[in-house]
Structures are given as C-alpha cells and as structure tokens.
Amino acid sequence: MTATLNPRSANERREPATQPVRVGSGPLLSAATADLAEHHRRNGPMPWQDAAVRLIGVLETAGLTGRGGAGFPMWRKLASVGMAERTVVIGNAAEGEPGSAKDRTLLIHGPHLVLDGLQLAAEAVGAAEVYLYVGAGPAEQSARRALAERAATGWDRLPVTVVTAPDTFVSGEESAVVAAVEGRAALPRDRTVRVAERGVRGRPTLVQNVETLAHLALIARHGPHWFRQRGTAEEPGTFLATLGGAVPAPGVYEAAYGDRLDALLAQAGGPREPVRAVLVGGYHGAWVPGAELSRARMSRESLRPYGASPGAGVVIALPGSACGLTETARITSYLAEQSAGQCGPCVNGLPAMADALTRLAQGDRRPELVAWVERLTTLTEGRGACRHPDGTVRLVRSGLRVFSDEVRLHLSSRCTVIRPNENAPAQNRAGQNRSAQVPPEQGRGA
Amino acid sequence: MAEQVLHIDWTRCAGRGSCVELLPELLDRDPWGYPLARDGSREPVIPEHLVAHARRAAGYCPVLALKLRAPA
Amino acid sequence: MTDALWYLGRGSGVIALTMLTLVVALGIATRSGRVVAGQPRFVLTAVHRSASLLSVVFLVIHVGTLLFDPYAELSLVNLVVPFTSTYRPLWVGLGAAALDLLAALVITSLLRDRIGPRIWRAVHWAAYVCWPVALAHGLGSGSDGGQLWFRVFAGVCSAVVAGCLIWRLSGRFTENRRVPTASPVRTVRRNSTLEAGR
Questions:
Q1: Average pLDDT over residues A287-312
Q2: Which of A19, A250, A347 sits opposite C180 (nearest CB)?
Q3: Within an 8 Å CB–CB cutoff, is residue A17 touching chain C?
Q4: What is the pTM (predicted TM-score) of this model?
Q5: Averaged over A421-431, what is the pLDDT?
Q6: What are phi and psi of C117, to 5 degrees?
Q7: Shortest Cα distance from C161 to chain A (angstroms)?
Q8: Element (H or E) spanning A178, and its range?
Q9: Half-sphere exposure of A156 (CA within 13 A, CB side)
Q10: Distance, in angstroms, between A438 CA and closest chain B CA?
C-alpha cells in the first residue's frame, strides 16, 4: 500500500487515533507535566513579573517568536496590544492543521506551562478576560483538569474561560478565534484594523499560540539567555515539531531552529525508505526535495529558496513510493473543502485548482492544464478575507516546481509510481481525456 | 492629501460588478465576476485623480463591500 | 380652487404610482447584477435611486394637496397612521401604509453606510409589500379607481411588475456564478499522518 499523506475528505467521521503520539524530549518537553505539584517541584513557583515593561524587555532580549506559524516576535505583539484593563488574552490551541499535533500534545503533557504563560501574558497587558481556545477532546479535558487544580490552590490570578474550537482548518485563524470567543461561528472575518487594536468586542486582543505561551513560562523563570542557548542568533530557542509520514516513530519532538532536516527526521527514526520530498510547514507550507535533506535547515533563511518557512513545525516525509503530484492534488482538494466559503475567489479558485491538479494526477494529458493551474494561482492569491488562498497557492506552486518531472511524466501517461487503483476513470488512451468537461472558464472570460 | 487604498471586504463581495464599471483603471473582472486589481495588489492604491470615482464605486456597491482607507 | 387641488392630488398620485412601478422594475434589474437593455450596472442603480427620490417628490405633492383638500378632511395623523381617517378609512389607510413603507425604504437607503448592508437589506424587502399596497390604495380610494383608463393603467403597471417578478424568480436571473455563502462549520477527521504504518 502506498504510503500517503491522505487528508480525509469532509464526509468522513471522526475516528480515534490508532496509536498514541510519541513525544520526544527537550528543554520544553522535559519541563512539561500535567500534575501541578510536580510542576511546582520541577519549575518553581509562578514567576509573576509585577511590571509589564519588564516582561516585554525580557522577551525582546530572548527573541521569542510566535510558534503558531506566523513567527511574529511576541514582545512586539504585547507592546502593540498595550496595557489596559479592557484587553483580552486568548491562548490559541485550535490546531486546525491536520499534520500538527504539538498543541494538543502540549496541553495533555504540559498544561501548566501553557497556563502559566497565559497568566503572565495577561499580566503583561493588564487583561481582565482570559480565554483558552481548544478543540474538544483529551487536550481540552486535560486543560480543564489543570485549571481546576490551579483554581483550588490559588495558583492563577485570573479565571480562564475555555472556548471550544471546531475541528476545521481555518478555526485557528486569528479573526476566526476572535469570532469564536465572541460566540459566533469560527470563521475568518474581514479586518481593516489589527486584532491587537480591536478584537473581541472591539477591545485590544492578544491571540497567542499555546506553545509560545509555554516557552514564555520558562523564559520568565530562567531568563532570556537560557532560551538563547539553543537555536540560532536570528532565530533563537527550541520549537515543537510534528514529524510524520514515512517515519517509524511519528510524533511530537523538540528541535532547535537551524537543525538540519535530516537530523530532525532522525529523531523520529529517520525515513523508512528514500524520501521523495518533505512537506515543511504543513498544508500551507512547501515541499523540500529529498535530495536537499542534508542541506536544508529549519530556519527562515535556509527554507526561503524553497518557498517554505518553519511555520508551526510540521514536517511530513513523502516516501519515494508515493507520487508527489497526487499528494499535492489531494492536499489541495482538502484545502478547497476547508474553505470557509465566504469569499468568491477562494470558493471558486481553490476547487478549480484542486480539480485541475487531480485531473493531471489521474491521467489527463492536456498540457494547458498546467498553465490553467498557474493562472488560477495568480487569480486566487491575495484575494480573500484570510490567508487560506495564499497558503494553498504556496503549496500548489511548490508542488508544480518540486514535482515538475512528475508532471511531465503524467502528461505522457506515465508516473514514477505504480498508482494504486484509485476511484479514477479508466486509464487514458492515446491522450483522450475521459471527461468531456474542459475545466470551465479555461482562459475565457465570464 | 494622504494616500488612499481600496479595501475590498471579500466576505461581502458577491461579484456584481458595479465597481469594475466605475473604476476600470484600477479594476478588472476575474473569470467568476469578482473585482481583480490590475496591479495585482491586495489593496490597490487610488491615484488622486481617481479618488472621487473610487468613492462613487464604493457608494454604488450593492453590498457595501468597498471602502477607501489609509494604507495599513 | 379646491377642484384644482383635487385634480393635482389625483394626478400626482397616478404619477407616483407610475414612478413606483418603474422603481420596482429598476430595483429588480439592479439586483440581477446584469447589464440590462444595454445599460451598465451602475446606471441601473443610479436611475433606480433617482426614480425613487422622484417618487417621493410626487408622493409629497399627492399627500400634501390632499391634506389641504377640505373634501377629504384628512389630518396629518391620518396620513402616517394607517386606517385612522374618517373618509374611506381602509383605502386611505393603505395609502398611509404605503407612505410609511416608502419612508422606511428611502431613509434606510440614505443611511446605508451607517446601518450596514444586512439591516438595509432586511428593510428593503418591504418594497415588495409597498408596491401592491400602493396599487390597492390607488384602485380603492381614488375617485378614478373605477374608471376604465385607470384600470388599464393599473393593469399595465401590474403586468410590468409581474413580469419582473417572474424574471426575479427564474433560474437565469443572475449571471451564472457560484456565489459564496459562509459554509456551516464542518467537522473533519484529523489527518492520519501520525498513524503507524502509513
């Protein structure tokens, strides 16, 4: 059976994972514990700062950036939210990215680090309202248990409201988070003002990924220089990586920025077979060719030539026995299904891209399909209320680039992989596409 | 006069096309009817001589999806 | 003199109804988002708006002259609160109702930027109530209501609106495009990359 990345379609129901997620070790993960007493023993008491400016200064020195994907410096976010009693703080554990498991793993294994960070962030902006946004399941239950423990012992200064995040791809988007906390549907909204200025009910809001908050909890205790011991000068610290695909021990591991991709995958046992490519940054990320694994590093600079970035630490190995074009088509189909459905270019453009890529993957030999996909990427990019189309375009362009050989083979009715029997039409013969439907609007106007 | 850009609220836009008629210098129409900035930017800059036309376009949008604002 | 007022009142009423019929037709044309009769979309919108304001002008003349007509004995209250007049309370009342609805339509439209598209749209549906109410008022309360020419005129107006309604409800009303509506939140199974053996 060909190993695939296999995003499920929207019609499939939830199933429990067949195997618990492996968890590695590192400065963050070894400090993580679900028991409050143990947390106190390992990490000491709550490091209240008592002066907002102090924390912002510490964070600036530490260089902590967001671990949710955007990588924005946390000290700057805190500064732009400012200090006022009407501010709101939200810990974001929605983790809509299917390839990522780090946030829920962190909440299960180390909720107290996350919750410490949440309290400290709230202290820094003088917030009175604090929320934790998390999907239903073991992570949420763990968080609630930890919150109850902390309330009983008076560990927290501020109560935390848990808000349930729906299990969708876009639920973790900043404006969707704000909408959910306000009680509306967790869909991105049009914004002319940053959430830091006007968020929940018009108030300055800090939305921070839970892993970032966990790092914050340790930096407040051990200082910025401790944090800078790992990582690079430009990108300090460690991060949680979710390693998956063709590795024997998929799971959540801790790594440092600047680590080489092959060293990273070695933590999960190294690839089981030669790797065709690695998806870095999740479904909105980009492919790095297998040949580059010993050269490419998990850092912005190293990944930039591939159109990738570390993102939220998702690294998925695509084995040599899988077809990169087919995988790209599948992921694009998933992303198209996961559109919030609010914006015309996304609602129309993403399914069109997915459709064209799927046709290419399944044997449609018309070369104009490639040009059509490229045109669609131009039409879709930057046109929507959120960055869902942009991220999808990034993946598609990367797929066409890295798997260009594959595309060429498909256009001559071949593939480097013997494809399993998909629900595809009969194999093509002599270049006749099976469907009489040319992709609509192919080069023609409305 | 401070520079202004055209902001499209994509969650409201239904691609009706009045804006494209009133601001053809800045906007084209994509294959599905939605406004497409000719310069390819998210929020096209409105040259001063077109500001009045842009305001008219915003006023004629049937779903109030257009807004003029200062660049972010 | 009072005769002149009376004729002015009835005449302006007929014109107002004609204008309202035009406004409804143009409103539906605007909603289609199409180029109609060679006219760009913004032109349809602009004429729809101008015509509605013109309707208001004729309506004001219509209502104003009748206010001062001693025969009808209408007070200001009768004009805005439906069914309170002593003279033909039902039919005049319908006129007052149409006036109220039109006021709501026009005022919300003028304040569109402030109230936002959702509230504006909700109120604007009242246009489909306003027009038939105005027509009924014309047929019932006008002294010309029974006359042949008025009935023909009313028939033509009705045919125009009916035709537009059929168009409105037809499948080819808007340009054939997939318009986004926010989808209900879907729950999707998490990706299985982390399962062993895959």
A1: 95
A2: A347
A3: yes
A4: 0.88
A5: 40
A6: -65, -30
A7: 29
A8: helix A174-181
A9: 25
A10: 15
